[in-house]
Amino acid sequence: MSIILKNICYLTRNSIHCRLYSKNVLRRRPVRVLNIPSNGLQPIQDENLASKLQLTRENLNDGSVGFPKGQESGLIVPPYEKLEKNDPRFTKTLTILKNKKLREQKGKMLIEGKRLINDAIAAGMILETIYFSREKELAELKFKFQENVEIFKVFYKTLQLWSNLTTCPGIMGVFKKPTTETLHILSEPVIPVTLICDNIRDPGNLGSIIRNAAAAGCQNILLTKGCVDPWEHKVLRAGCGGHFRIPIINNIEWTQISNYIPKKSTIFIADNSADISESSVTPEFINYDEAPEEEVNEDGEIEMKKYVSTNEHDQPVAIDETYNEPTELEKFQDIDLPCHLYSGIRFPKENIVLYVGGETHGVDPRAVKLACDYGGEKVKIPLENSMESLNSSFAVTVILYEIKRQLAEKYILK
User: Fold this and answer.
1) Cα-Cα-Cα-Cα dihedral sign, residues 353, 270, 334, 377
2) What is the pLDDT of residue 296?
3) Where is the MRM3-like substrate binding domain (predicted)?
4) Which one of 23, 302, 323, 350 is CB 3.0 to 4.6 Å from 254, fit for a cystine?
């Protein structure tokens, strides 16, 4: 009987041991419990710490604690409306702004990031709508709280979905696209240079050209048909606010380019593929003749190479179809215009036209024809280490600041 009892005890101890220490059992360490007095916790003795902890929702509105009245976060923000995830007031607007054709029809532009938005506001652009995700971003915008500006709070993930940037800045601004007349009023030209950009298709390249041309103080920028849209988001980012400080005329046909150039202009073509003229050791500025007038035949009638049409504003527009005639352009493919170092040319005091083409396509024959019509030449920047060409934006910048330097010296001598 005693042997049976011993076996039962042995089996019982083993079963308890297995149950307590098996792998499937969650073991917990003992927790020490403090006995709290019946009268509750003792008050904090440190008066400074106690005064900080006594800051409650009721006295957050008190100006003495450093928070503006009515704003618990300490930020001064205008009234805004919260939008749901797929609110059409956001999705429909962004759909229009993403499409080039619809964006041009509506006359709007989309800008991301508080820095570029503030730059557009400072330049005098008209702000229409703001989309943001955090009040901090909204509070850092430097604009007056106007009733005609719509302000909407959107989920960050929604903004991120529609953002054009790798890292969404959390704020977008919809502005009215400025007209050329508005930019003429807002801009402050310093040098009498009209810049022609032809076949510039890289957004970053065109944005840099616009930025540098505005910084140098050019009069305006002409973009021929085929250039990237200057109001596209990548161009706006690379422009760093230059779009708002210099008139930009886009989608110009070669047949109409003479309408944007004064008759007494001098064309300079930036071309590093041309050879420098040997006869111009110390080149002097040539007084070029005026642009050729229309040819008159034997009957006293004007040749119909050029005729006059009207634009969307009912203004007369001269059209020269010779810029579209292949047989006419073949004559200018093999013409070698005189080429000089950019620093060896005496630039005129007014009506300077600087042409720059795309790096891959080079100089268009129509640009050579334009230079021949107005009397012009090529300029070249010397390169070392067997390099063939410079970035278009950098080449433009070098030449523009050489023009600016020469004009500044002439004014000082006067």
Assistant:
1) positive
2) 47
3) 92-172
4) 323
Q: Over the stretch 234-269, which tens digit does the pLDDT of each residue have?
A: 999 999 999 999 999 999 999 999 889 888 889 999
- The chain-wide mean pLDDT, for the chain, equals 77
Handedness of CA 361, 366, 367, 371 (dihedral sign): positive
**173 near 200, Cβ under 8 Å?**
no
- Tokens 């039962």 identify what position? 8
Q: Residue type for 75, please? A: L
Residue pair 187/125 in contact by the 8 Å Cβ criterion: no
d(CA 335, CA 366): 12
What is the pLDDT, as a whole number, of residue 291? 37
Of 116, 77, 231, 96, nearest to 162 (Cα)? Answer: 96
- Measured CA to CA in angstroms, residue 180 lies from 199, 243, 245 at distances of 21, 11, 11
CA distance 161 to 168: 9
Over 90: is that where the pLDDT of 329 sits? no
Contact 192, 350 (CB under 8 A): yes
Q: How confident is the model at residue 31 (pLDDT cuts 50, 70, 90)?
A: low
Residue with tokens 């916790």: 41
**Angstrom distance (rounded) from CA 289 to CA 266:** 9
